[in-house]
Amino acid sequence: MTVIVEIAVQDAGGARAAVDAGADRLELCQALTFGGLTPSIGLIEAAAAAVGGERLNVLIRPRGGGFVYDAGEVALVAADIVAAVRAGAGGVVVGALNRDGLLDRDALRRWRDAAGPAEVVFHRAIDASAQPADVFDALCEEGVDRVLTSGGAPRSVAGVDRLAEFVRRGGDRIEVMAGGGVVPDDIPAIIGAGVAAVHLSARGRAGLDLAAGPGGGADGYDVTDPAVVAAAVAAARGAAATLKP
């Protein structure tokens, strides 16, 4: 069994550090503290140049505050998808629900059209739904390439039963990737549930000694910790080696 380790990164340096430490795939975003937002075009271009666009998935999320979007926001996401793919992204990460908490199929179809040949990944908006199984089945029907989910739990390791259910339901139609509070020690249990891809941020903190304060936000900034990436990769490879092909 091959297990993919995906790392969420926020800059080109973090992308390089993650890949050098063994990461298979990346999700590029900004503002992870707020759940992640769309990165700038300059950042997408820099990350694609650093590690290659084929392993780079770009989060396209116009704002925080839930996943129900109006027509203007849907159009903005579509435009950002086109720009991100043009800038070198091999995939885009999106998510939208309707007011009933089910998949917003119209938004997803528009975004898939905008992505063209790029992969389309549905993010943890599924975990915000009261009916995640219905959202999952709809994603399979719509032909989404991958879904990022914690199984509806605060942390993926606590959602392994639902993750296993999603793997069974999805079969070969969609890749189920576990994400949400994942740390390297969780990975064997997640892989034991049949999940073949894990996602984590591997964040550290730098710049705590630099000037900050009013107008500058919190002290310090996020960086990718290559030691955490390497530990996650080792845990994934070790757990995969214990399973049958």
Automatic annotation (TrEMBL):
<comment type="similarity">
    <text>Belongs to the CutC family.</text>
</comment>
<dbReference type="GO" id="GO:0005737">
    <property type="term" value="C:cytoplasm"/>
</dbReference>
<dbReference type="InterPro" id="IPR036822">
    <property type="entry name" value="CutC-like_dom_sf"/>
</dbReference>
<dbReference type="InterPro" id="IPR005627">
    <property type="entry name" value="CutC-like"/>
</dbReference>
<dbReference type="Pfam" id="PF03932">
    <property type="entry name" value="CutC"/>
</dbReference>
<dbReference type="GO" id="GO:0005507">
    <property type="term" value="F:copper ion binding"/>
</dbReference>
<keyword id="KW-0963">Cytoplasm</keyword>
<protein>
    <recommendedName>
        <fullName>PF03932 family protein CutC</fullName>
    </recommendedName>
</protein>
